[in-house]
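We give this protein:

***
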Amino acid sequence: MTDTPSRLRVLVFNWHEPYICLFARTGHHFHVLPPPQQPKRKWNQGFRPLPANAEEVDWAQAQEGLRQGAYDLVLCLALPDLQTVQGWQVPRLFVMLNMIGTDSGRQGAQKAAFVESLKPLFREVDLAFISEKKRRDWGWEAPVVVSGIETEEYGGYTGEVVQVLRVGNLLRERDHMQGYSAQEAILGGQFPSAIVGVNPTLPEARPSADWEDLKQQYRRHRLLLNTLTEEHEDGYNLAVLEAMATGMPVVSTPNSSSPIIDGMNGFVAADHGVLREKIQLLLADVNLARQLGQRGRQTVVEKFNIETCAAGWNEVFAQCVAGGGHAPRSPGRRRAPVPVARAG
């Protein structure tokens, strides 16, 4: 295992607040920078509170920090970040959150050619993935750190709102990933449901007011409907894991990387009619919902442990800072001033 400095100074592009909060579990200090493509983007408190070991910075502050060698690591979370950080004289790590085929809009030979075209951008940029399925989709060897959930922050499931909960941003726009059309077909206007997330084209949806509000939706609604697609997503995302950590039962379409085992810690079926039967069963029986939900919560404890996740990211961060496959770099060493491109 690589030794990690006790407190790295990390610059991260603000594409995904929940994942930045997950990275913050490592205990390092994070400067959160709006990406050049969205230079006015601010931290969204509706998704998560800003961690105590993180602070927002603008481009002028980040540029000065980079010139002074104040950062030990730059964390990239989207493909455009690779172009942004080219030439920066600081260890850089790209964490692939999505399937590369999904992000690039390519499959088969076109996807393979696109991945090959990215090789020059990774000459001095390390790579890591959040699931084995996403790593296989890319096709390169690199570390995989599975997401972790702090189950003690959730819990308290009551299920008194006899509705189906759907959680996600831009569900209709990202139908190919989220399976929104499948949700509509499954529900068929037969069951009451609530949608929580940023969905401007869905008038019935509403964003969570804050993190506590989001957790209350998991606790109070009877079940979560999950339709993440096989081709474009894992069988789970943070919303699914959070619902499970709460003790909320999940009804899901099949996915090869799903943590749900039908009838054991949730319900899974490809047939929409069967899924409707399972939804009706849970809406009618809160005790069954609690039993399945508790088994789902135990699945998260065993397979998506936050301590294991944080330790994994600490190892990946340390390898990147130490040089990985590139020229060795001394952790914590202040680096020579370098020119930095401006946002926009």
In short: The longest helix spans residues 286-303. The radius of gyration is 21 Å. The chain has a mean pLDDT of 91. The CA atoms of residues 235 and 258 lie 4 Å apart.
